[in-house]
Amino acid sequence: MTQSVSYVRDTMLPAQDPPALQSGPVKWVLDNLFSGWLNTILTLVSLYVIYQVLSGILPWMFGGIWDASSLTQCREIRDTELGGKEVACWAVIASRWKQLLFGFYPPESYWRVVLALVLFLAAVAPILFSGLPRKMLWLAVVAPFVVFWLLWGGTIWGPICVALGFVLGWAVLTYGEDIAGELAAILGAILIPILYWLFLAGPLARGIADFSSPILGFSSVISLVGATMAAAGIYLVTRRSSEIGATLLAIVAIIMWWAVVDPYLLVRFGLLEFASGAGLSAFGIEYVPSKQFGGFMLSFILGMSGIVLSLPIGIMLALGRQSDLFIINKFSVIFIEVIRGVPLIVWLFTASLLLAYFLPPGTSFDILLRVVIMVTLFSSAYIAEVIRGGLAALPRGQYEGADSLGLDYWQSMRLIILPQALKISIPGIVNTFIGLFKDTTLVAFIGLLDPIGLMTTIRATTDWNGIYWELFVFIGLLFFICCFSMSRYSQYLEKTLRTDHR
Amino acid sequence: MQKSVLLGAATVALLAAGAASATTLEDVKARGSLTCGVSTGLVGFAAPDASGTWEGFDVDLCRAVAAAVLGDPTKVEFVPLSTQTRFTALASGEVDMLARNTTWTFSRDVDLKFEFTGVNYYDGQGFMVPKSLGVTSAKDLDGATVCIQTGTTTELNLADFFRINNISYEPVPIETNAEAQQQYLAGACDVYTTDASGLASTRASFENPGDHVILPEIISKEPLGPLVRHGDNEWGDIVRWSLFAMIAAEEYGVTSANVDELAKGTDNPEINRLLGTEGDLGAMFGLDAAWAKNVIKSVGNYGEVFEKNIGENTPIGLARGLNAQWTDGGLMYSPPFR
Asked: Closest-CA residue in chain A for B40?
């Protein structure tokens, strides 16, 4: 690369960095923080304020005392070892964090709550992220029942018998149409499962549990797996000759397995003792009454059931409010306006106090269920209005376009209108959900021990009487993590769904 | 939970119709546990420890009743109730009894259809001020700002007191006791007023309790006691006499330590009747002859319970005062066991 011609540069000079003041962080700082005398002064004042705040809070937070058995001891440690500097007494969190998270749930069963949480996250993941395999959606079908069983315990036949109701409804809807016509099938699909849940599911679950536990040694996973495999094997082998015969044979195989093979295996290998020793009788785990639910777990259960249930109800209400059918329209309007027009705390008091007056004395219709219902109804009214906003924002052409394609009402809603309306409503929906999640702390007023309620009980012990901010900071952090995740997710979703070219 | 989910309201109604006919005693025995409504948290009176076991002065009363009825003080399900939910919970049968620092008043006893079965703590509203204020009597508090919990009888008592003494004050409404502590310490008010037991426990939680004084005036009567529903007098008797058994035991010197010894028989017929070695008082209300012995053995007599939870050796440090035995000039007086 020599200079071959005088006065003419025929090769490129190597590129140089821009001047230090015109690039990188320095330029950003100069442009944004010190671009004039006013901005410089404002920057300096802000820095001073931030410093003042942080220098107060950070040493308080990070210099906190973790190892003490009471507030008094915390203060002693502070005075003797830290020279009386004001620091947080995190020892209260160290000693009570389990209670703040799980309430009075039996400690030996904490794993059930954790497992339920993992399962819940795994079940919502395929709904939230479209990149995941679609087969995972089956988890979302099964998860509600398994999560319920894990949390409350008892025999697994309860949730299974409840789930059977849905199968029943589906079967009536699918096969009833040919027999009784469409309208009758739809009505039947609604009524039959409800009747089943009201009158059959309970006795059925208890019947199976009672029948299966001691006599047949129905107490290990092996018996279910074994019976299924035996039945499946026989069915597959004999299917060719006759379908019905194969099914009957398979049923016989299951019964034979339970009646003969299973007891033999269990006795032979001592599995029965093992199973009862591990507390696994009849696929049951220890029953935990709702009274023992508390802490952040309670908030999470209330918040998430409210969120999951209120979205579909809210969509239905929003469509109902737009509907031309008189009864549906008026019902939706009245429902939304009544529920939304009254504060949540009033509904919670209704759930806990008024219902107690209406129901016959001695009845205790589970308080947690009552609160979940109220929270769900409350939030679905808000969701309905948010989604109605989305529906209203769609141009008329979208509705007309759907009609001109020959789609019926549900098809046009499902394929054209709702996807767009929901996309527009995402910020509003997530906003409502975050609000709902935080509002669950109101249950402290009806005596449920959510984190705020537990704060009172923790302060009521002589050890921690007088402690204040530490508990608030901890609970605030828990809520922040959840709400912030929801907010980030909604932003991610908006970005992924952005199909226009704005 | 499952039952109510599965069977729904209709079946529950049927169950309830069956349950309502039985007496509370039969219900408790059939269930194998007592459900007792307690405070959601009140220092010294009711609070769960780190493992979730409830402790406190009111809690021990629940345990005493469980010991009398079921012979086991651990067979209690505690239902934390807020001030708003407590009466409904009792009226609707969600709890068998309330031991929730509830003041015995005419309207609660008569109008709300409850039966107060005694007084386990005589409280009264008092005032706390910083020592630096130099106040020695509540009558000197003219023009003071007063931190007060809203929606309680203390608010009304305060207004009455200042009006009677013709002095003025400025209320600072506060929602909870914890908030009141913060406000008072931050100097948002000159005076904090609530029940004297609450003042003592609040003061005990301060960094320098010595800097604050509780004024001598007690401006209201707050007899706190257990209560049950109207109409089941046998159950009311059980709760009432469980408390009296604890009070009488202290009077006669029966403690959890010597009750086994004394239950073998003593020269004092009153003790013998109490502990079931003479006569059979328990059978009169359907309990075991050793019901009172079980109470004293498992939770102790009234004095022991007091000392353990709120007495002078605890951080709360309450003196017996009105709650001393009548023989010591207090109001604790059990009718005879005969």
From this structure: A457
ipTM over 0.85 threshold:
no
Question: Are residues B40 and A202, on separate chains, in Cβ contact within 8 Å?
Answer: no
Using a CB-CB cut-off of 8 Å, the residues of chain A touching B32 are none
Q: How far apart are CA A215 and CA A208, in angstroms?
A: 11
> What residue segments make up the domains of chain B, in order of their start?
2-122+223-328, 125-220
Triad A211, A215, A220: Cα angle to 5°: 90
CATH level 3 topology of B125-220 = D-Maltodextrin-Binding Protein; domain 2 (3.40.190)
B133 CA: distance to closest CA in chain A (Å): 22
Cβ-defined contact of B10 to A104 (cutoff 8 Å): no
Taking phi over 0 as left and psi of -120 to 50 as alpha, with beta for the rest, A237 belongs to alpha
Instruction: Specify the domain boundaries for CATH 1.10.3720.10 within chain A.
Output: 293-502
Number of helices and strands (H, E) in chain A?
23, 2
A356–B92 CB contact, under 8 Å:
yes
Best mean pLDDT range from A212-216, B214-218, B223-227: B223-227
Architecture of domain A293-502: Orthogonal Bundle (1.10)
pLDDT of amino acid A277 = 47
Measured in angstroms, the CA of A144 and the nearest CA of chain B are apart by 14
Residue owning tokens 């399900």: B77
Domain B2-122+223-328 and domain B125-220, same fold? Reply is: yes
Give B-chain residues touching A359 at CB under 8 angstroms: 9, 12-13, 16, 92
Residue A104, pLDDT > 50, answer yes
* Long-range contact pairs involving A391-400 (C-beta distance under 8 Å, separation at least 24): A391/A318, A391/A319, A391/A322, A391/A417, A391/A421, A393/A421, A393/A424, A394/A420, A394/A421, A394/A424
- In A85-169, at which residue ranges do the beta strands (DSSP E only) sit? 154-155
Contact B51 A107 (CB under 8 A): yes
The answer to whether the Cβ–Cβ distance between B77 and A291 falls below 8 Å is yes
Does the beta-carbon distance from A445 to B77 stay under 8 Å?
no
Pairing of strands B76-81, B125-130: unpaired
Q: Which pLDDT belongs to residue B254?
A: 94
Instruction: Please write the tens of the pLDDT for every residue from A149-163.
Output: 889 887 777 788 888
* Averaged pLDDT, A410-439: 92
Mutate to test the interface with A, among B78, B92, B181, B192 (most CBs of A within 10 A): B92
Whole-number average pLDDT of chain B: 88
pLDDT tens-digit map of B62-83: 999 999 999 999 999 999 888 8
Chain A residue numbers touching B15 (CB-CB < 8 A): 363
Chain A residues with beta carbon closer than 8 angstroms to that of B55: 461
**Residue B103 is inside which H or E element, if any?**
strand B97-103
CATH architecture classification, B2-122+223-328: 3-Layer(aba) Sandwich (3.40)
B286 phi/psi in degrees, rounded to 5 = 80, 25
Contacts of B8 in chain A (CB under 8 A): 197-198
Instruction: Answer whether B88 sits within 8 Å of A445, measured CB to CB.
Output: no
pLDDT at B270 (0 to 100):
92
